[in-house]
Amino acid sequence: MRNVGVTLSLFLGANSLSVVMYANTTNDAYKPKTHVLKANSETVRWGNIGKGDPALTVHSGDIVTVEAITHHSGDDYERMIKGDAGVEDIFHWIEGEKNEALRGPGVHIMTGPIAVEGAEPGDVLEVKILDMKLRPNGNDQYAGKTYGVNAAANWGYLYGDMVEEPKKREVVTIYEMDTEGGTDYATAVYNYKWSAQTDPDGQVHPTIDYPGVIVDHNTIDKNFDVLKGVKIPVRLHFGTMGVAPKEADVVDSVPPSYNGGNVDDWRITEGATMYYPVSVAGALLSIGDPHAGQGDSEINGTAIETSVTGDIQVILHKKASLNNKLKGLNFPLLENENEWVVHGFSYANYLEELGASAQTDIFKNSSIDKAMKDAAHKTKDFLMAGMELSEDEAYSLMSVSADFGITQVVDGNWGVHALIDKGQFGDSERKPVVLRSSFENFGAKVGWQPATKTVTLSYNGNVLEMKVGATTGIYNGETVKLAAPISVVNGKIVVSEYFVNFYKAKLAKTE
Amino acid sequence: MRNVGVTLSLFLGANSLSVVMYANTTNDAYKPKTHVLKANSETVRWGNIGKGDPALTVHSGDIVTVEAITHHSGDDYERMIKGDAGVEDIFHWIEGEKNEALRGPGVHIMTGPIAVEGAEPGDVLEVKILDMKLRPNGNDQYAGKTYGVNAAANWGYLYGDMVEEPKKREVVTIYEMDTEGGTDYATAVYNYKWSAQTDPDGQVHPTIDYPGVIVDHNTIDKNFDVLKGVKIPVRLHFGTMGVAPKEADVVDSVPPSYNGGNVDDWRITEGATMYYPVSVAGALLSIGDPHAGQGDSEINGTAIETSVTGDIQVILHKKASLNNKLKGLNFPLLENENEWVVHGFSYANYLEELGASAQTDIFKNSSIDKAMKDAAHKTKDFLMAGMELSEDEAYSLMSVSADFGITQVVDGNWGVHALIDKGQFGDSERKPVVLRSSFENFGAKVGWQPATKTVTLSYNGNVLEMKVGATTGIYNGETVKLAAPISVVNGKIVVSEYFVNFYKAKLAKTE
């Protein structure tokens, strides 16, 4: 197949729009392989995102349906473990028998690692998040619901700095999400103050210091009068996703770094694309710590911690062919339809900067001020290299339009992110392409119903319906939020190149 | 007039919606007075937001059309001063003759102060921003445009920390906005490196250290190859607005504090409401430092600094009648249709905390970490008092849904803000009311065209047209962004109480 890019200019009154049309000489199909990576005690590692034997090996372009399980499931065994074979397997721990006995220094249950054929240090790994779905709980008693945990934990930002007594308290709030009605909010069910828990080996845990301990509900007081009438918008995302760093073998899953990991940005959600610098052979991608809702800062130590199944596409960019945005990439970069997001940390590469004791020292050196300095430099560098701006142009632009936010203040290596609006760069960052030819190009069927102004994309047994101007579409019978509404320009449906690449991958998934 | 509030429940399938309908026994009119406060050398103070003789005195409920002028106008005399009588008057400075000779320690041109009749310490002053318009420049040569300045200044976050030489450079970028075509973006025109400027009194300014100096364009090199093709979204806002603090007489306009001032949050825009704690008799509201665009952090030291004319409504809330959100308010609080925004600073009240040398010491103690701590406590306190949550509920909710951002890192007393989504609280924070009765209640005429689903609100010679579902409306013939689209619920147009109060004031303005 040969793609021939032709740039047309469509004149619309005073506005002109450059549109790249792809003509293809043959309609050979786009057929990435779809893998399924279920979570169980064989396919997850607990607390470690370092090097290790792959749970799965894929080729660039492949799609993986990956199960991610929350490490907080033990806070309500009945609602979050019971009846779910995978979760039961991971959490299985009786005296003298513990499936996940091998622990890293961190807390998260990480599915993987996934090795990517041919990935080498200096390459960049792109991960598109094609789909995220709450994992229904396995207990018939709570059918149709998914539960999540928010723990105001000892590593929270205001721990000990409270008004009410005891100031040093940990409080677990259980949240509920509807997995059948398609509601997009979470409500609190009850909360309880953490009391000392004894694990199956007889060790007592006076604080939340070891995930996997099943809380004995006979030892706690449940308070059901919590956040009545409050409906928290669901923002499904992976709290922790990243490749293995080269600097250490076993790596704590808690502090994020240049390789990604526990970035805890709620924008790492369906429709987003992450780019990670590869520093070990195979890249070794780990995925975990799913969240149903989190604010920028994750102030009390956790989000709504829940279990999620995602579809991701993994694309390897070789060092020699990196574009200006990815060349020399030294941080986890996020892209979505509307934004680039730069992630800075107190230490850009804490394992290297803090040396042999980095994995303990990082928790003594947390600072938003340092993270802001890192984010500021990375943002300027990104605008200069990626958008080909002079230093003065980049610095002015970030002051007048980039929004800096506090990603998290609870993961040791604290985070500040910068949001860069793609729209301000016009066609250069949101390249308009004609929908029909773009999708037909890789073999999809494109239908159009003029009466309802609805486009139907069919490929590989998958069907996506989108109505002009609508913010949601229908994907295989289910309502989904669209990356962007589609619009008509001069008689043609025009979308962004990002949009095409995203839905191309989504449609390519096989069951 | 007596208002009788009746709460109805409208049942819509599984959902119910409580709607407060106002019945009024007489249609006596709502007639706040409209004042005009032009900016000239008599009505502005330069660099000081402290106590002082009022430029205007108003009653609670009054509307003020207030002109605000940027202190950066001297960076391009031809585009930003020439031909504008008010600006020329303020900037008039020849040897031995300087209209604004009396300067505070700060930099901003502040219009006011506006005294509010009956305002006393302990009260809260509400300021609704009803309208903001770019001030067209006065030079025929540049008709139909407004210009703005972004200065990468010596107080910028990366000053001296640059890649290119000289690292310690200040660069001024001139931006252009269209005031006729209604475009909502800014484009860069040219930039130049600041060179030493000599003021009319013979003093040399090697850096940007004294606003009001007219830059001699014979001494600079203009570079017109700047940010080509980049269109920056316009976010008109007042960078500096607030009441006089009680702790000092002359107060630097640069560091924001509990009384507001240079908060530099771009959300302080049309449609927003600010609440300030009053600490001196008359409140003494000052307004200035208008911006056409700024990112969260204002990283290089300035925004797109331009001149703007706004309509504000000033409402006094007496101490004895404050609701739970305003009782004990100790920071500038923002509300809009969708959010509450809490503002924290490195020092919540720097004048009190840092003592006699506060106005110099604050610049040595800037810290985002401190500002985050302040914002975290204020947000928890606000949720507890304002939403009647327990401490555990508030702390959990902020972790799972409040977004903390970096307001600015360039104003001495650095800022962190928290965005609290009103929608999550349902009707309690976004109280639905029936549009027709709410507007008829104060004497407005409400029209409805079924064919086009358009509501027309007429009052006082002002007309607002809104189509169901549309994000923009027509106000007196001009397209305006609506606070929210209107929607039909059970055959009635239902909007929020906030919406009604906002448009009620907007319609009440007289010419």
Automatic annotation (TrEMBL), chains A, B:
Signal peptide span: 1-23
A Pfam family assignment: Cu_amine_oxidN1
SUPFAM superfamilies assigned: Acetamidase/Formamidase-like, Copper amine oxidase, domain N
Chain ranges of the Copper amine oxidase-like N-terminal domain: 425-501
Entry keywords, A to Z: Signal
Protein name per the record: Acetamidase
Organism from which the protein derives: Paenibacillus odorifer
